[in-house]
Amino acid sequence: MTEMVVPGTYIQVRTEGLISAGRVATGIVGVVGTAANGPIGTPVTLSGFADARERFGFPDVFNRPEDGEHPLTLVRALEHIYNNGAASVVAVRVAGSNRSSASYAVQDADRRTVALLSARTPGTWGNNIRIQSDEAQDPCRVEDELHTDSFDELNYAPIRPSRENRILLTSGATRQPKPLNIVYRRIVRDEEATRRDNRIYLTAVDEGEDRPAVEVPAVNLIRVLDADGTQVRQYGDGDIVYGSGSPPDEDAVRIVNDTGELIFAADQKPEPTQPVVATYALGHPAPQPGEVLLTVWDGGLEYATGQAPDQTADDTLSASYLVEPEVCTRVRLTHGATTEQYTVPDGNMLAQARGSGVIPGG
Question: What value does the mean pLDDT take over residues 35-41?
């Protein structure tokens, strides 16, 4: 009921208890402190104490702090807050000016540093990153390798021929990338030689197609086996002579490049029951328009006549390709339940793959 007290002034009487204050958010707590892990100076909304420990790490031992003087405070405070019923918590990690990130020097077999890895965020958490490197079992991939002033060789070799390999040539005049069809001077691996007319030939060599055997001492290897697969003799660097000619001296073999014939010393010619297995460099005809000839054992590039990139015209070349496992390394980074794995040809590629640091810290 509404009653007029004085002209223009009214009083409305309502039943007691119907008037209440609007809802006010409660239970949101902000916490600032030091921690072993996590982003610095960034507010993080937490879903619970387990989330807090995953993002900011475990606290150190109170009477034996990591820095020798000041125990870490953030996760300790969060534990008390959650134990006392907090529902929504925003945490901010802070750190002093002397903060630092854990680092690890990756070394080669000669103990030379090839890459320096640093934890993504400062703190003692980085001391618990485990780094393991071993021989690669699969090829490693080089992605978007850019050339602006030298176009005759890729950075890594030997290269594995693959449909995944890609070479793009961008004209400085049009800025339009053009893919080049890749053809290969390649390595034939563990091929059993062919016998014809009591002679022995490298199977992939094709004289009519201009695919000769190429003299590459670091690659070429000829093995004579027994019928059961036991090695009888091996010919490698220093034991192989090239070109047409008479049979070589004992413990040597001649490769006739254009025909692929293998000529052994007279008293060392393999028996018909003895397989001959060869690994060798195989040539390829000159590239045609729109092609690039890639030499897999050294990364060399050759172009069709008149189609080579020109530095003075601001041409650029981008290459993505696979590198053979024997020159790659597998690097595994582990922190708690998180594992990252990279297969790379050297420390530079590892640093590029990891960007600014290793293992995200929260």
Answer: 85
